[in-house]
Amino acid sequence: MAPKLPRQRWKIKEADRVQIQELVEKTGLSPLLAQVLIHRDITNAELAQVYLDPESQTLPAPLTEFADLAISVELLKDAIANQDKIAICGDYDADGMTSTALLLRALRHLGANVDYAIPSRMKDGYGINQRIVQEFADTNVRLILTVDNGISAYDAIALAVELGLKVIITDHHDLPEKLPPAQAILNPKLLAKNSPYAGLAGVGVAYVLAICTAQSLGKITGLTEQLLELYTLGTIADLAPLTGVNRRWLKRGLRKLPQSKLMGIQALMQMAGVSEEQKQLKPDDIGFRLGPRINAIGRIGDPQIIIELLTTEEDGIALEKAMQCEQVNRQRQELCEQIETEAIAYIETTQIPWQENRVLVIVQPHWHHGVIGIVASRLLERYGVPVFIGTFEEAEEKIRGSARGIEEFNIFEALDFCRDLLGKYGGHRAAGGFSLEAKNLEAFQQRLRKFAHQCLEPEQLKPLIKIDAQAELRELNLELYHQIDGLQPWGMGNPFPIFWTPNVRILEQNKMGKNHLRLTIANADRSHPISAIAWRWGEYCPLPTFVDVAYKVQENNYKGHRILQLELVGVRLPEETSNKTTQFNHQGRVYSCGFGKTKNELQIKNDQGKVLAIQKGQKMGWLGTNQASSKPVDVTQPHYFQLIKTAIATLESD
User: Fold this and answer.
1) What are the strands, taking DSSP E only, across 320-467?
2) Which of 258, 283, 254 minimizes the C-alpha distance to 268?
3) What is the mean pLDDT of residues 44-56?
């Protein structure tokens, strides 16, 4: 019986040996990491310098990048000077809540008369609406400041203007065809794509506005660090791209967080088990520990808990709110497990033709709307197709849902393709949310099927593993890990490096916990054993003895003992090669030779695993254990020339 393996497709990036060699010489990086940088479009020494040391880049001033920033600062300064009431309208995700807390802290520091409101996930849905605007007007608000929302709320903003309120929109979501009639709009989507500010999340836009306003008022002292910590928390939790100013500011913020002066962050780290002794946090500390505890509140709790947590100056309140985060996060985990189990069972037992449809649409009653987005991500990881998941509401007359997409499928465009069937919808390329009347469900499914068939091929319906470089197990050590770790932050837009090694032997494998796998792998000859872990792979145990593996290089720190550990993200059976290889003897040594993927490249391998690769008609070849670490050699030298001549003769006579 064939072994059960994860359904995956691998995309192994090609190595440019010349670029790797140049980058190694100019940066001192290992060949493996030089290849990683090249795959991040960092192809020369100048770009590498900015990547390695973001502080070395000269940034344009935000006031020259955001056309409405100067207007926004003046509107805030006038409101503060006149003690006009300012109302912040936030959002219930981590980005929106940290943005709200950031601007509350900043405006209170500047002496503003400020309050806030966050729409109810269950009652209002996303973003500012006319009800909230009317309530602001009824309580004498003069200036509305949206954070992480507002760019698509034309009717609500138009009502605010009609009622005589001024509006500043700070958002980062995709632009609608018609912009709202606000006095000022700050959105990085209005900037040039190559602007260093183009990747800011909502909290990043709020940070820029707060800092510029404080600088203009001469009241920046004592404010920057606390705002930087909130910016760091929200940016990583929102999965914003870690490029441009995000990379620069996050490197600072991640160093500040372990010794945070904010009571709420201290309490949150305490509950999450994040050590204050760390020199700096890593994005994973936020993405998997702090962020989920914040997001859980927005999904199934009261966002006011987070606002109070992140704005309080009292230890007792901070600890109380952090404990509430912990409790709600556990409830969220249980809900996710329950819904995921039910969803998989439903998909498997009812035999939904998701491969034929090229999209998975699943709607069930009684699922909590606040967590189905997380379940959508897990189903995407499992099945490798775009996922649209929903739950019935209002006596099963309406459906609210979330969507997650694969690289070749644009979620927002898919929803827009179905716009006449939907109520509210929004999002971006990778994710979105939607609502519709239940009677439109079948038509919605058919429309999504049509859209999916326009942009997806059957071979694309597997989870994609993007691999940076091939590595030998003997190259993997703590020194390499420390080099990788030194290039933090890794994350969205700058993913953690993934390497692969062919034909490894699994020496040991055991299930760990509910559904994880612990392994020891080695070369085929059992040399260079190394421990590995595979999260949520328990169902694939036992794996075959010989496999190709894709992995991240990690460090396992257990009771002060540090060892190297691989985190497996991909596994497949060793590929059968159709290329003919032949052994021959030359000057007392055994070699094997054959052609590469194209007949233009001859490859000769010695008994130590080194490969000499020669392109037809070229005087220079490449020698090394893999593409990344290969060095150029002159193949016209007599010892190489004779070796090549013998190899060609062997292949011709075979």
Assistant:
1) 360-364, 387-393, 398-404, 425-427, 431-437, 464-467
2) 258
3) 90
Across 275-289, 395-409, 420-434, least confident range: 275-289
Cα distances from 184 to residues 67, 70, 153, 165, in angstroms, run: 9, 9, 14, 12
Q: Give the Å distances, CA to CA, from 499 to 122, 202, 220, 448, 577.
A: 43, 33, 44, 35, 20
| Residue 588 main-chain phi, psi, to 5 deg | 80, 5
Q: How many helices (H) and strands (E) does the chain have?
A: 22, 24
Task: Tell me the fold of 62-256.
Answer: inorganic pyrophosphatase (n-terminal core) (3.90.1640)
Q: CB–CB of 331/300 below 8 Å?
A: yes
CB 467 within 8 Å of CB 570: yes
pLDDT 10s digits, 477-496 = 999 999 999 898 998 889 99
pLDDT tens digits, residue range 213-255? 999 999 999 999 999 999 999 999 988 999 999 999 999 999 9
d(CA 449, CA 458): 13
Q: How far is CA 143 from CA 89, 140, 185, 229, in A?
A: 11, 9, 13, 26
CA R_g for the chain: 28
CB atoms near residue 525 (< 10 Å): 7
Could you give the CA distance from residue 442 to residue 439 in angstroms, rounded to a whole number?
A: 7
pLDDT of 639 above 60: yes
Domain boundaries, given as residue ranges, for the chain: 62-256, 352-460, 468-572, 581-653
Please state which CATH number belongs to domain 352-460: 3.10.310.30
Range name among 19-23, 214-218, 440-444 with the lowest pLDDT average? 19-23
CA distance 168 to 189: 16
User: Quick one: which of 500, 620, 512 has its CA closest to 570?
Assistant: 500
pTM score, two decimals? 0.85
Please, which residues bridge with residue 519 across strands? 509, 532
**DSSP letter string, 482-493:** HHHHTTPPPBTT
Percentage of residues of the chain with pLDDT beyond 70: 98
Residue that is written with structure tokens 């090694």 in the block: 501
Q: 561, 504, 577, 564: which is closest to 532 by C-alpha? A: 564
CATH says 468-572 is which class?
Answer: mainly beta
Distance of CA 81 to the CA centre of its chain: 41
The mean predicted confidence, pLDDT, of the chain is 92
Of 186 and 587, the structure prediction assigns the larger pLDDT to 186
Cα–Cα distance, 40 to 237 (Å, whole number): 22
Dist. CA 253–CA 229, nearest whole Å: 5
The span from the CA of 382 to the CA of 387, in Å, is 11
